[in-house]
Amino acid sequence: MDALTAILGRHTTPPVKMGEPGPDATALHRLLEAAAAAPDHGRLRPLRFLIVQGEGRAALGALFAEALAEEMPELPPAELEKQRGNPTRVPLVLVAVLRLQPDHPKIPESEQIAAAAAGVQNLLVAAHALGFASKWATGRPAASPGVRRRLGLARNERILGILYIGSERITHRTGGRPAPEEMGQPWPSP
Fold this sequence. Notes:
This protein has 190 residues and is an alpha+beta fold. It has one domain: NADH Oxidase (3-Layer(aba) Sandwich). 42% of the residues lie in helices and 18% in strands. It has helices at 3-9, 25-36, 56-71, 77-85, 109-129, 139-143, 145-150, 180-183, and strands at residues 18-19, 47-53, 92-99, 133-137, 157-168. Strands 1, 2, 3, 4 and 5 form a 5-stranded antiparallel beta sheet that branches. The protein is globular. The mean pLDDT is 94.
């Protein structure tokens, strides 16, 4: 698949519409290579991934539910069960970890975040090119200090996203995208 076809064809698939097979070791290696190919001003390497497969998915779901139950005791049990089950719905979960160098003398945090986000996007496009479905999620687990702590993230690290990757079992219709005319505007204006 050529690059433009992969970019234009990539779409988000909810985990409930994914299943086996997931990427094998060779495909996972290619996904991580694609992430590493993103622009990275200063070669700071502001992105790393926690790879969660097999029984680790249930452990990650339990970690999500426990942390959120502690932080938000008002959450309904159904929401906690949803968070517990999300990682088990797909064969591969990647926790995208942003590593900031907040006081870097030349490269502002905004560029570090952009570089990490570009890495995630590269990985998602590569997953599509290899025939896999994916979803980049944030939400409660990504924002949770308890999840961060339980995952052992350093003080300068935070969760940029939780990537769910598998094979599309049920076709998912995507929402509309902006027209190219909405994306670009002549400057200076006539």
